[in-house]
Amino acid sequence: MEALFHARYYNNSDVASILVKALQHKSVLLKHEIAYVLGQMSVTNVKNTLIDLCNDKSQHEMVRHEAAEAIHALGFTDEETEACLRQHLSDDSIPFRQTVELALEGLLLKRKSNSEKKIKPHVPRFYLMTKKKKKQDLVIATYNTKDPVESDILIQTENELKKHFNILKDEMQRLWDRYKALFALRNHDSKQAALYLASCLDEKSSALLRHEISFILGQMQIPETALKLIERLQDKNEFSMCRHEAAISLGSLGAIDYTEIGRYWQPKIIAELKNFLNDEDPIISESCQVALFNIQNECNLQLLPNLVPL
Ligand SMILES: [Fe+2]
Ligand SMILES: [Fe+2]
Fold this sequence. Notes:
Layout: H1 2-7, H2 13-21, H3 28-40, H4 47-55, H5 61-73, H6 79-87, H7 94-114, H8 158-169, H9 175-188, H10 191-199, H11 207-220, H12 226-234, H13 240-253, H14 260-275, H15 282-299
Helix pairs in contact: 3-5, 4-5, 5-7, 8-9, 9-10, 9-11, 11-13, 12-13, 13-14, 13-15
Bound molecules: fe (ii) ion (2 copies).
């Protein structure tokens, strides 16, 4: 996993080819992460690989989901890609189907607005996500990830914050609009926004949305959201993709040892991650291993003496 995230900094087709070869690995966690990284890189000759992953029903839904998101992230607007996405609109896996719906809506919007726009180079980030403000005087925060739905909403008042929170939690709203609200809240970059997001981890209508909220909480790094993430990790009836994302984000929050609240949560987070190190679902046990490895690295602790690299 560590090698994978170093590889992405070499944003070229040779590295992408190595990553494509590594898709033969048996770990679902590693494969889904490779698909994610391929989407975040600006190498477009991986389109067929991503389409094949979407089409391959023997792949775990988490891998197919990341492949569909990667297709969107790379900004393809051609008809072959559209046909691939349309073909999966009634797939048996609901999270994958919803990913495809979002990717297709994104494709059609992009085609409409500017089909000739070139893919912008971007600054890749390490897995456990830090944030960066572009300009001091701008309220909106920018995160160096390509998001599944771009949100240009700038929240400036408490009322607007509440309004977008209400959209996010409203199951009657379109998933696309809930995703836009989700990223608007993240970009507000406040503790209140993070707490609103965490409170939506109880929502029942979409595992896809819950997994994205967990991912974002790892980016925002507000330790007070750890409890809700721990609840997701503990819930054995939860989708693997949601438990996984909760574990990884806990690895991000657990590395905050430079604030009082971070130090309060760190031992609790470490204990929870250790609890699930031997979970029967390899996606979860491997995620906990990666999360603990992150805390170990960031905080110079010895948490995994016998680490077996993924
Ligand atoms: Fe995802
Ligand atoms: Fe993931």
